[in-house]
Amino acid sequence: MWDLFFDVYIYMRIKRLYILLKSNYVYLEHMGKTFSKVLESLNASVISRRDDKHGLHRTRSDHPEYTPPNQSKVISDHKFTLNSNPMITAFDILTTPLRLCEDPPVSKCSDFYWACRNNKIEEVKKMLETISQDEKDQLEPNGSTALHAAAYHGHAEIVRLLLESGADRAIQNKFQCLPFDEASSDVVKELFLRIPNANRLVMDTGAIEWELINSDALENANLERDAIKNIYNNTSGTTSIEKMFEKIQKNYIEKRLVNTNKINTIKHFFEKAIKEQDPIWIIKAYTAETDFYNILNAEIATGASMYQNERKFIIALLSYHPSLDKLSYVGTSYRVMKVSEYDLQKYEINQLSMTKSFLSSSIDENTAIWFLCRQETKGTNARLNKQGKAVKSWIMCKYQIKHQRTVSVTGCHYVPLTLFFFSFHFYVP
Predict the structure, then answer these.
(1) CB-based contacts of 142: which residues, under 8 Å, 6+ apart?
(2) How many Cβ atoms from other residues are within 10 Å of residue 24's Cβ?
(3) What is the mean pLDDT of the chain?
């Protein structure tokens, strides 16, 4: 009898455990589906965030990419009339009408543009080995770039190749649209979202102290701000703005970064900066997919002694050069951080914080939440403490940019960079 009672008892316990596990599974499955729907909704929001303003141009008859690409290539190669070739018959003309009506600007576009527009993958790969950055990014006579063309026609592999090679994603076409705006599908648009290397809007606290949070933060920030302003104003009389550009290129780029990933791309931007005396090219270098921004930020945060003057020249030019006034931004921005409980306790009401490097964020809240969700779903094993809790957790910070000329905006989704209470918003898809 006791055996029977014990068997029934065990059966009831197992059944209860089964019911509990099943209910938890149903709950977790429901939560998983809910989270998936939220992530799907966020993804759609990020992908379509610029459609209302820039999505209508795709259907215009005067759009530079409107003509089917294969037909356009034939036109560009074989433009003729009866007068120009007596051997051509009326039948030839009737069977090739498009060859007679193509606009001259399209026929003058580069071979590289046509290869990208017509999805000639192998041809594009070979050309990318030899063409210059200027040839890659040039605005063609029809008001479009190779990247615009590939995105418009949905050539995902061409878009990927161009982006990986450092093609400028912030150039506007004749309708003030970016290549991202012209993309024909969500698949192509997602290529512009810097996946899987999307780490500009996220920060992981660790060996490098990226912020100074204490009662001296404001005083230290003011001292740094005054020092940077004196450098820009050339108070010492030793380094003009022209010299700043030259020293950054000669010392920091050509010596410190000589072995850096994609150094030729970095050099290109700084050569442009020297030629045009415009720091917008420093911004382009920072937002390009190279190691420049990682190295620069780490060395600023740690106070590296080598090439310290050159890094201060970069900060001064971005902080005070008048050419960036038009890019100034005031408003709210968002950033994702991975912090420990100890780090989080530093963020108290009325506490002052001074960032010690450039800081990237997004002015679109959904974009920041989308980055946060992606970090949570990467599937990496979290480190746990003795109590079984995660050592670090993902959070989202909200910033209020209050002062003009502490933020600059350029490109397609806004990314602020903050330094010593200076903030620079860069548009980086």
Answers:
(1) 64, 103, 105, 106, 109, 174
(2) 10
(3) 75
Give the residue from 401, 197, 412 showing the smallest Cα distance to 293.
197
Task: Give the integer Cα–Cα distance in Å for 220 and 367.
Answer: 32
- Predicted pLDDT at 188: 93
Torsions phi, psi for 354 (to 5 deg)? -120, 120
> Of the segments 196-205, 318-327, 403-412, which one has the largest average pLDDT value?
318-327
Check residues 364 and 426 and name the one with the higher pLDDT: 364
pLDDT digits (tens, 9 = 90+) for 196-255: 454 565 555 555 666 777 778 788 888 888 999 999 999 888 899 999 999 999 999 999
Class in CATH terms, 58-193: mainly alpha
Q: What is the pLDDT of residue 414?
A: 33
**Bridge pairing between strands 202-204 and 353-355:** unpaired
Contact 171, 203 (CB under 8 A): no
CB atoms under 10 Å from CB of 205, counted, come to 17
* pLDDT given at position 65: 78
Query: Secondary structure of the chain in the HEC alphabet?
Result: CHHHHHHHHHHHHHHHHHHHHHHHHHHHHHHHHHHHHHHHHHHHHHHHCCHHHHCHHHHCCCCCCCCCHHHHHHHHHCCCCCCCCCCCCHHHHHHCHHHHCCCHHHHCCCHHHHHHHCCCHHHHHHHHCCCCHHHHHCCCCCCCCHHHHHHHCCCHHHHHHHHHCCCCCCCCCCCCCCHHHHCCCHHHHHHHHCCCCCCCCEEECCCCCCEEECCCHHHHHHHHHHHHHHHHCCCCCCCCHHHHHHHHHHHHHHHHCCCCCCHHHHHHHHHHHHHHCCCHHHHHHHHCCCCHHHHHHHHHHHCCCCCHHHHHHHHHHHHHCHHHHHHECCEEEEEEEEEEHHHHHCCCCCCCEEECCCCCCECCHHHHHHHHHHHHCCCCCCCECCCCCECEEEEEEEEEECCCCCCECCECCEEEEEECCEEEEEECC
What's the pLDDT score for residue 422? Answer: 35
Residue whose pair of structure tokens reads 């700084």 in the numeric block: 270
Strand-pair category, 331-340 with 202-204? parallel
pTM above 0.85, yes or no: no
Which amino acid is residue 294, in one-letter code? N
Q: Where are the domains of the chain?
A: 2-37, 58-193, 196-429
Contact (Cβ atoms closer than 8 angstroms) between residue 321 and residue 233: no
Task: Give which of 422, 408, 411, 410 is closest to 232, Cα–Cα.
Answer: 422
